[in-house]
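Predicting holo structure, inosinic acid bound.
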Amino acid sequence: MKLVFATHNKNKLEEVKKIVPPHIELVSLTDIGCFDDIPETGATLEENAHIKADYVTKNYGLACFADDTGLLVDALNGAPGVYSARYAGTDKNSDDNMNKLLENLKSKNNRAAHFKTVIALNINNEKYEFSGIVEGEITQAKKGEKGFGYDPIFLPNGYNETFAELPLETKNAISHRGRAMRKLIDFLQ
Ligand code: IMP
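Done. Tokens:
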């Protein structure tokens, strides 16, 4: 079965390919010749995930899923949340985003945070939604070279290494996206 993952992000595609069973042929936006930057104009992660999946199904007529993820920090009332990619500006620079977050948390004792992923699936003219969460805390400084986004400053609960230090297999086993993806895969099987 051919299924589009509505992303241009190579890191995310690699993460997801590792957990998709062989009978699902996962293709990216690039693979279907879509080079558009699909606008994420929703007010919630749920809305954005559906906007992206609907864009592909409408314009390419293919079964598709899209994800939208946010990092929600308790002491900042859930910020950066739906604005995680653009927290420090429209160029979506991860270093700038992390620097801004560390700066905004400087005076806070509570560093609890969680990642949340929402996946919207369009298949056989039906719409579905799956979500996954991982709880953790924001470190005082960046640590690790792996991963992407806020990985160097996110310490998952129960671990002594950040997402940027842990092997990808470990991240996938406990991450927001891994959890949401496994719900999607269970549904497709
Ligand atoms: P997206 O909706 O999946 O593109 O995620 C929005 C933003 O959240 C990204 O630009 C990253 O900054 C951040 N993000 C998403 N997933 C992860 C992750 O697994 N680790 C670290 N940061 C992430």
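The beta strands are 2-5, 25-28, 64-73, 80-81, 112-123, 126-138, 154-156.
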